[in-house]
Design goal:
single chain, about 130 residues, alpha/beta, Rossmann fold, 4-stranded parallel sheet, 5 helices, globular, binds S-adenosylmethionine
């Protein structure tokens, strides 16, 4: 698995919209999230969110309490800059999902896209 410095370099040296996994809107994810969300509060975490615009679109919907987690501080900084003052409405976590101890029962919806296929060893998958 690539480490934090790899991902910081990727996001620090490339514009997000030039990355192979870039999508202007995460429409498929948004559709699925809306299908499983409840009418009340939805605590969602986007694991390995990077610079994804999913967070922008979720902020435009009602009732989402949003956390974006990524191993790359650079990626999250790009997303925060893009969101400007709206970035304050999001919890940002920098960390390696295979090592981080997230609080139990803290999230209703877990989202990840193009992240877990980087975890190829039994230890990473177990974590
Ligand atoms: C291919 S990108 C996908 C980004 C985003 N999900 C999207 O759809 O645009 C993979 C992302 O996973 C993050 N990542 C890789 N390994 C990670 C780990 N162990 N813990 C947390 N994030 C990780 C990278 O920094 C990168 O932002």
């Amino acid at each position: 698995m690539q480490d934090q410095s790899h991902w910081d370099r990727v996001y620090g040296t490339n514009s997000s919209d030039t990355l192979s996994w870039f999508q202007p809107h995460a429409d498929q994810s948004l559709g699925l999230i809306q299908r499983i969300s409840s009418r009340e509060r939805n605590r969602i975490i986007d694991v390995g969110g990077g610079t994804s615009t999913l967070v922008d679109d979720l902020l435009g919907l009602h009732g989402f309490d949003i956390t974006v987690l990524d191993i790359s501080e650079s990626a999250l900084e790009v997303a925060r800059q893009r969101l400007s003052s709206n970035a304050r409405r999001v919890r940002w976590l920098v960390g390696d999902i295979t090592r981080l101890a997230l609080p139990a029962h803290a999230y209703d919806i877990w989202h990840d896209r193009a992240v877990f296929h980087f975890m190829t060893t039994p230890e990473q998958r177990q974590a």
